[in-house]
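Fill in residues.
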C-alpha cells in the first residue's frame, strides 16, 4: 500500500519520469519539489543555471516556474547573480 507522498508522486509523475502537472496546492507541490530535489540533484555538487534548466526541462515543460519554486521553497540555493546553484 502506498503512503500519501507516494500516491501524490505517482499521480503527478507518469511512469516515474515526467511531471504531468505542477500541483497548485502547496502541500502537494512541496512533496513534488522534495522528490525532484532528491531524485535529480546531488548534495555535494554546484550547478550552473544552464545545468539546472537542462535537468528541469527533462522533468517538466515549464522549467522556469519549477526552478523558481525550488529556490523560493528553499529546496535549492543560489548565489545573488544566479551563476551557481546547490542544495
Amino acid at each position: 500500500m502506498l503512503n500519501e507522498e507516494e500516491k501524490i508522486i505517482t499521480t503527478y509523475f507518469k511512469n516515474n519520469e515526467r511531471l504531468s502537472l505542477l500541483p497548485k496546492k502547496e502541500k502537494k507541490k512541496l512533496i513534488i519539489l522534495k522528490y525532484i530535489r532528491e531524485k535529480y540533484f546531488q548534495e555535494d555538487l554546484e550547478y550552473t543555471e544552464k545545468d539546472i534548466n537542462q535537468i528541469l526541462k527533462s522533468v517538466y515543460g515549464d522549467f522556469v516556474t519549477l526552478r523558481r519554486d525550488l529556490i523560493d521553497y528553499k529546496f535549492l540555493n543560489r548565489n545573488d547573480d544566479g551563476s551557481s546553484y546547490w542544495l
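The first strand starts at residue 13 and ends at 14.
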